[in-house]
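With this grant's support, we have settled on a layout for protein records. A representative record follows, to show the layout.
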Amino acid sequence: MSDSTTDNKLSLDDTLEGAISHLRHHYPDISGAHLDIGSGTGNLIRRIRKEYKLVSSACDYTDQFMELDGINVDVVDLNHGQLPYSDASFDLVTFTEVAEHLENYRAIVREVYRILKPGGVVVITTPNVLNMKSRMRFLTTGFWSMFGPLHVGETAIESAGGHITPIPYPYLAHALMASGFDMPHISTDKMQFPSLYWFILFYLPIRLAAALAWNKERNKYRTMDKHNASIIAQINTPAMLLGRSIVVLAHKPA
C-alpha cells in the first residue's frame, strides 16, 4: 500500500534514498532474495537493483501501479495480517510508507520476522509523528502531521487520505523487538524545515521537561529499564525533532 504514483515518483524520493542510505551504512554487502511490501511503481526496487545483488519480489494491494518490466506483483490484502510466503524465504524485506495505511501493522511485522531468513534485515519507513511540526499540529488540532480528518468510506487507500495509523518510533521499535528482532537502528530521511522554527524555540524546555518525566517513569511507574531506555532516548534527539520520516532497520538474529 504505497502512496500514489505521483507521490512515489516525487515526494517519497528522499524517503527511499534514506532507506537505501541507512541500509548501505549498516549492511553494505547484503545479497540474496528481497521482498518489497507495498511496491507501488517499483521505485525502490529500481534503486535497490542499482546498489545490490538482490533478486526482488513485490507485493501490494493492487498490481496497477507497477511500472518495472519483469516484476510480477503478488496482490495481498495486508489488513488480513498474513503474507503468502514460506518461512525464512527472504534476506531483505523493505516496508516503506506502508505501515501507516494498515489496520494492524504489528501483525505484518510478525509476518516479516517469520519470512525473513535468520540474519535477515527489514527496512521500515513511516511518517515521523514526533517531529516539531507534527507535535505543534497535534497541540493545535489533535492531528499529527501527515495525518488528518478521514473521509468515511475513503477508497484511495494508497493516498495520504489512507493514513490511518500514526506510529511513534517507540511503538514501532516495541513491535519489532516483541516479534524477535534485535534492537533497531533509527535514522530520518531529511530535515523538515518548518520544524526548525519550533525546534529553536522549544528544544531546551522539551529536554528539561522530558528529563523530569523520564525520571518519574523510571522511579515511580517502573516503565523504563535497560531494555527500552535507548529507545526512549531517541524521542527528543535533534534528528527525531526535525526529520520528516523515520527510517528503521532491524535484524533477525542468526
